[in-house]
Write a structure and sequence with these properties.
The complex is a heterodimer of chains A (about 180) and B (about 750). Chain A has about 180 residues and is of the alpha+beta class. Chain A contains six helices and ten strands; from the N terminus they run E-H-E-E-H-E-E-H-E-E-H-H-E-H-E-E. In chain A, the strands form four sheets. In chain A, strands 8-1-10-9 form a four-stranded mixed beta sheet, with helices on one face. A two-stranded antiparallel sheet of chain A has the order 2-3. Chain A has a two-stranded antiparallel ribbon with strand order 4-5. Chain A starts with a strand and ends with a strand. In chain B, helix 9 packs across helix 13. Chain B is globular, with a radius of gyration of 26 Å. The chains are: A alpha+beta (about 180), B alpha/beta (about 750). At the A-B interface, helix 1, strand 2 and strand 3 of A face helix 1, strand 1, strand 4, helix 7 and helix 8 of B. The structure holds iron/sulfur cluster (3 copies). One iron/sulfur cluster binds next to helix 2 of chain A. The site of one iron/sulfur cluster has 15 residues of chain A, from helix 1.
C-alpha cells in the first residue's frame, strides 16, 4: 500500500476550500494551516501563464523529518503516510527545520502538526477532507499499488511533476501539468 | 526553496509567487474557537440546512460533536446546486455562528444618527418603537412611504409584512446593482430571464465564453464545478477580460480587451457569424424575429472596426467566432452576474442574448437548458390591501422596463425633490449593507438623514447598522428555519433549512420578528402560525410531504414530468415575447423608445494619471458580509490593489506598499490598501476585490483592513432602460502618504 495524492493545476482555481475544509475537519486552530495554496504567474502582459497548486505534506518516502526526529514521534504509518504522535512530540522543531516543503507548523498546544492525509477518514473508506470538498474535483487520492485507484489512473493518463525532486525526499504528492 | 515563507518573500520581490490561503500561516493566534479533541465522525449528529453565505443556496449538513458544538458543514450529495461540495465560504460558514462580534441585543439609537451611540433594549421595546413609528408614518404620509431593502431568506417575511401593511416598495440591491440588466435583456429576447442558479448547461458545453465574468473567483458553486467538468471533457473556454483572471488562465483564448468596449466585440462577433454564414440557419429561421434587420445593422461592424475600439486583433475575433460556431449549438456566451458597468448594460446583454440566439444555444444541450421547478402552495392569507403609489411614481416615464423595484431608485427618492410624489420616510434594511452596496455613499447617507425611521436587521454590526435608529439582531442561518428552497434547476428540488443550534445571545429569526411586528400592527392575519415550522409543515403537507420527512432527508428531488430539458427537434415553440419569437430585433425595447438592436457608444476614458477602478470577487468572501468571519478572514483578511509593473515603476510603487486612492471626484479611501504588482492587469486600470475597508469598529477582525471600492464609486452611469447603476466608470489615482482626515469625505 502506498498512499498518494495528485492535484490538477489545470483545474484548481485557488479557492482555498481545501484549506478551510482541512481546518474544520482536523480542528486546526485559526491562524494555522496544514494545506495551503500557491499561485505562480509567469510572463508579461498579455503573454501570461498561471500555475495554481494546493500544497501540503508530501508524505515523502525518504523523509528527513522522520530521520531527524529525536523522540520517534514522527514516523511512517500505514501506506507510507507520515504522522506525528502528539504524545511523544516534545515540540523541538527539528522536523520543521528539516522539511524542504515547509509543511509543518508548531501547534499552540506544544507539539508539531501537519497533514495526515486524513488517515481517520481514509480508514473508513472516505477521501481526505480537502479531496472531498474541492469544487473543481481537481484532487485525486488513493493507493499507488492499486492500479484502479483514482490517483493511479490519473497519473497514468497525465503529465505530472513533484516539487523539489532534487531534495531526494521522494514525495507522494503529484502535480498534474 | 519553494517554502511558504520563501513565497511570501518572492512575491515581495515582485516575481509573481503568491500564497493565497492560508495567509495567516505561522502567526500565533491566541484564540482557538473549537476545542482540540480529534474529530470522530461516528459521534456526530447532522442537521439539514442550505447555505446562506451567498445567494447560491447550496444544501448541506451541519455536523455537531459530542459537546454539541458545530464541527463542520458539508454539502448534501443529492443537491443539484452543490453536488455534495460546498465552496470555501460555505465550508467556513461555521465562523458566522462563532463570530463573537455578532449583534447580540436589540439596540435603540440614543445620540445623533450616525454617531453610533445605542442602548440595549428589550425586544418588546424595540418592536413597539418600530410599530409606533410605522403607524405614525402611515397616518401622515401613507404606508407606501415605508420601504424594505432585503437580501437573503429572511426577506420573505418582512416582504409579507410590508405588503400587508400596504407598501409595494420592496427592493433588493441584487436587481439594480447586479443582475437586472441581464434579466431585462434576456426577457426582451427570449421572453424568459436567466434566473438563479443560471440555466447555463456548462456541464455539457463545448465552448464557454466568459465576457467580464470570472467564474472561479466568483465561486458560484455549481458553475465552478461544471466549468471544471467541461475542462475535463475538452471544452474550449474563451475569456474576455482586461485582467488575466483565474478563468483566463484556464482558457484556450484570452482576449485582453480594452475596458468598457465589450459591446463592440460582441457586435463584431455577430457580424462575423452572420457574414460567414456560421449561424444556425434552421433555428434562426424557425424561431427568431428580425434577422434581416440584424444583418443590416451589423454590416459595417467588422472585426477591423472593432479592433480600433477594443484593441483585439481582427484575426482573433474571427478565430474565436469560428470556435463558437464550431461548437454550436453547445456554446454558451455567459450572461454574467454583476453586469452593471457602464449604463448601456441592458443593451450589452441584449448583444449577448442575440449572439446566443443566432448560434442556437437557447434550449439546446450545452447551451441553456429549460429549468424545472417545484413550488409549494402558499397558505391562503387574506388578500393584501391595494397600494395607491409605488416607487416608480417618483420617476415618471423613466426606467420603463424595470421588472423589480430599484434599490437605488428608492434611495434617491428618499431625498426630497421637487415634483416627487412619494418621499420615503422609513427604511427596513435586512441582510444588506447598503452603505457598501449602493454606489455613491454620500448620496445614501443623505437619504438616510431624511428618514424618520431606519431599522437595520443583520447578524453582524455592518456600516448600515451604525446609521440605524433600531438594530435588530438576527440569528444566523445555522440557528433558524427559513422558507423551503424552491429554486429552479435541471430538476425540481425542495431543500430544508432547520436550526442546528439554538440562537446565540438574544438574536431571533426574521420570521419571529416580522410576526411580532405584525401583531403590534394588527396584521396578525398574515402570520397565523406561531411557529415557522408549522407553516412549513402545512405547506409540505399540501404536496404529500411533511416537515419530519424533510428533517431526515434535507432534500426532495422531483423527476421531470416530460423529457424537455432541451427543445425537441422541430418542436413548435411560442416564446413569451410580443412576436412569439426569439426577438433579435426587440419590439419591447422599440416600444419603450430604445434601440431595438444594440449600438456601440464609447465611454469616458481615464484622465492623465488616473486608472480605471475595476473590482470583483475573491473566492473566500461574499460581498462585504463575510470580511469578519474568523475562518474566512484566515484565508483572506484584506484586499490588495493590483497594479501593472509599468505603472508601479512610473509611480515608484513597491509590493505591499500601502497607498490611499482618490477618484476623479475627490472621494478618497479612508484606509490604505497594499499594492500588489502583477502582470495580470492592464496599465490603464487597477483592480481590487470588493468588500473590504470596513469602517465599523465593532467588526474587530476586518475594521480598517484594505480599501472600500464602494467609497470610490461616486460616478454612476444609470441604465435608462431599467435603472441599473453602472459602476465601472470611476477612475482613481494613488496617494502615497496618508490624506488628512478632512480630505476623506464621509
Ligand atoms: S479546493 Fe480545489 S480548486 Fe479550491 S484551491 Fe483547493 S484544490 Fe484548488
Ligand atoms: S513534506 Fe516535509 S513533513 Fe512531509 S514527509 Fe516530506 S519532509 Fe516530512
Ligand atoms: S456557493 Fe458557497 S457560499 Fe454560496 S451557497 Fe454555495 S456553499 Fe454557500
Amino acid at each position: 500500500m502506498r498512499y498518494a495524492m495528485a492535484v490538477d493545476t489545470k483545474k484548481c482555481v485557488g479557492c482555498s476550500d481545501c484549506v478551510v475544509a482541512c481546518q474544520t475537519e482536523n480542528n486546526v486552530p485559526i491562524g494555522f494551516c496544514r494545506d495551503w495554496v500557491v499561485e505562480v504567474t509567469d510572463g508579461t502582459y498579455p503573454q501570461l501563464e498561471i500555475e495554481i497548486r494546493s500544497e501540503r505534506c508530501n508524505h515523502c518516502n525518504n523523509s528527513p523529518c522522520v530521520r531527524c526526529c529525536p523522540t520517534g514521534a514522527s514516523h511512517y504509518s500505514d501506506g507510507g503516510i507520515v504522522l506525528v504522535n502528539s504524545e511523544k512530540c516534545i515540540g523541538c522543531g527539528a522536523c520543521i527545520a528539516s522539511c524542504p516543503y515547509d509543511a509543518r507548523y508548531s501547534h499552540p498546544d506544544g507539539y508539531v502538526d501537519k497533514c495526515t492525509f486524513c488517515i481517520h477518514r481514509v480508514k473508513k473508506g472516505q477521501d481526505p477532507a480537502c479531496v472531498a470538498v474541492c469544487p473543481t474535483k481537481c484532487m485525486y487520492f488513493g493507493d499507488l499499488d492499486d492500479p484502479k485507484s483514482p490517483v493511479s489512473v490519473v497519473l497514468k493518463k497525465r503529465k505530472y511533476k513533484t516539487l523539489i525532486p532534487e531534495a531526494g525526499t521522494q514525495p507522494e504528492l503529484y502535480f498534474l501539468i | 526553496m519553494a517554502s511558504r515563507r520563501d513565497f511570501i518573500r518572492i512575491s515581495g520581490l515582485g516575481l509573481g509567487g503568491v500564497v493565497l490561503g492560508s495567509n495567516a500561516a505561522y502567526q500565533a493566534f491566541s484564540q482557538t474557537f473549537l476545542n482540540n479533541d480529534r474529530l470522530d465522525l461516528g459521534s456526530l449528529r447532522r442537521t439539514p440546512t442550505y447555505c446562506e453565505v451567498c445567494f447560491w443556496k447550496c444544501a448541506g449538513w451541519v455536523y455537531k460533536n459530542d459537546q454539541g458544538q458545530i464541527q463542520k458543514i458539508i454539502g448534501n450529495d443529492d443537491d443539484l446546486h452543490c453536488n455534495g461540495r460546498l465552496c470555501p465560504r460555505g465550508t467556513g460558514g461555521v465562523g458566522m455562528y462563532y463570530d463573537t462580534d455578532r449583534l447580540k441585543k436589540p439596540l435603540l439609537r440614543v445620540g445623533e444618527r450616525g454617531q453610533q451611540t445605542f442602548k440595549e433594549v428589550s425586544w418588546d421595546e424595540a418592536l413597539q418603537y418600530i410599530a409606533d413609528k410605522m403607524q405614525a408614518i402611515a397616518k401622515e404620509h401613507g404606508p407606501e412611504c415605508v420601504a424594505l431593502f432585503n437580501h437573503g431568506s429572511g426577506g420573505a417575511y418582512f416582504s409579507r409584512l410590508l405588503k400587508a401593511f400596504g407598501s409595494p416598495n420592496i427592493t433588493a440591491p441584487s436587481y439594480a446593482q447586479c443582475r437586472g440588466p441581464r434579466e431585462v435583456a434576456f426577457l426582451a429576447t427570449f421572453g424568459e430571464g436567466v434566473e438563479s442558479p443560471e440555466r447555463t448547461d456548462i456541464r455539457d458545453t463545448r465552448c464557454l465564453v466568459l465576457i467580464g465574468s470570472h467564474i472561479g473567483e466568483n465561486m458560484h458553486n455549481g458553475q465552478v464545478q461544471e466549468m471544471s467538468d467541461a475542462i475535463d471533457k475538452g471544452a474550449s473556454i474563451i475569456t474576455v477580460d482586461p485582467r488575466f483572471s483565474t478563468a483566463a488562465s484556464k482558457s484556450k483564448f484570452w482576449l485582453p480587451i480594452k475596458p468598457a468596449t465589450d459591446l463592440a466585440l460582441l457586435l463584431a462577433w455577430i457580424h462575423v457569424i452572420i457574414e460567414e454564414g456560421w449561424y444556425d440557419k434552421a433555428y434562426v429561421e424557425k424561431y427568431t424575429y428580425g434577422f434581416e434587420q440584424l444583418r443590416e445593422h451589423v454590416k459595417t461592424m467588422t472585426p477591423e472596426w472593432a479592433h480600433g475600439i477594443t484593441t483585439i486583433e481582427p484575426a482573433v475575433i474571427r478565430e474565436t467566432a469560428r470556435e463558437m460556431a464550431n461548437a454550436s449549438p453547445a456554446v454558451i456566451i455567459h450572461p454574467g452576474r454583476h453586469v452593471t458597468w457602464y449604463g448601456d448594460d441592458s443593451q450589452r446583454l441584449r448583444a449577448v442574448a442575440i449572439l446566443n440566439a443566432i448560434l442556437g444555444s437557447w434550449g439546446r444541450r450545452g447551451g441553456f437548458y429549460r429549468p424545472a421547478e417545484k413550488k409549494l402552495p402558499s397558505y391562503p392569507f387574506p388578500p393584501y390591501p391595494k397600494p395607491t403609489r409605488t416607487w416608480q411614481d417618483a420617476y415618471p416615464g423613466l426606467f420603463p422596463l424595470a421588472g423589480l423595484a430599484l434599490a437605488s431608485g428608492i434611495c434617491d427618492a428618499t431625498i426630497p425633490a421637487h415634483g416627487r410624489s412619494c418621499s420615503f420616510k422609513a427604511w427596513i434594511v435586512l441582510g444588506t449593507n447598503l452603505i457598501e452596496t449602493l454606489p455613491n455613499q454620500a448620496n445614501t447617507i443623505q437619504a438616510i438623514q431624511n428618514l424618520d425611521l431606519l431599522v437595520a436587521i443583520d447578524t453582524m454590526p455592518m456600516e448600515i447598522t451604525g446609521w440605524a435608529d433600531v438594530v435588530l439582531p438576527e440569528c444566523t442561518y445555522l440557528e433558524r428555519y427559513d422558507s423551503i428552497r424552491e429554486n429552479p434547476h435541471r430538476k425540481g428540488q425542495l431543500a430544508l433549512r432547520m436550526p442546528a443550534m439554538e440562537p446565540q445571545y438574544d438574536s431571533k429569526p426574521a420570521y419571529w420578528m416580522a410576526r411580532e411586528l405584525a401583531i403590534k400592527l394588527n396584521l396578525a392575519a398574515w402570520f397565523p402560525f406561531e411557529k415557522m415550522e408549522d407553516e412549513l409543515d402545512w405547506q409540505l403537507k399540501q404536496v404529500g410531504l411533511s416537515l419530519a420527512e424533510m428533517q431526515k432527508e434535507g432534500i426532495k428531488t422531483f423527476e421531470r414530468e416530460y423529457d424537455d430539458l432541451y427543445f425537441a427537434p422541430d418542436e413548435e415553440i411560442e416564446f413569451p415575447t410580443n412576436t412569439g419569437k426569439i426577438e433579435l430585433y426587440s419590439t419591447e425595447f422599440e416600444n419603450a423608445g430604445f434601440d431595438p438592436i444594440p449600438k456601440y457608444t464609447p465611454h469616458p476614458e481615464p484622465p492623465e494619471g488616473y486608472y480605471r477602478l475595476n473590482y470583483g470577487r475573491g473566492p473566500a468572501h461574499t460581498f462585504s458580509r463575510t470580511a469578519n468571519n474568523p475562518n474566512l478572514t484566515d484565508l483572506m483578511d484584506e484586499n490588495m490593489l493590483w497594479v501593472n509593473p509599468r505603472v508601479a515603476r512610473e509611480w515608484g510603487l513597491s509590493n505591499e506598499q500601502p497607498v490611499w486612492l482618490r477618484n476623479q471626484d475627490g472621494a478618497t479611501s479612508r484606509f490604505p490598501i497594499k499594492v500588489r504588482i502583477t502582470e495580470r492587469i492592464r496599465w490603464d486600470s487597477v483592480y481590487m476585490v470588493h468588500g473590504f475597508g470596513h469602517e465599523d469598529k465593532r467588526l474587530t477582525r476586518c475594521f480598517g483592513k484594505g480599501a472600500s471600492d464602494s467609497k470610490l464609486i461616486t460616478r454612476v452611469h444609470v441604465d435608462p432602460v431599467m435603472g441599473g447603476t453602472g459602476m465601472r466608470g470611476n477612475f482613481v489615482t494613488f496617494l502615497t502618504s496618508e490624506p488628512k482626515a478632512e480630505e476623506v469625505q464621509r
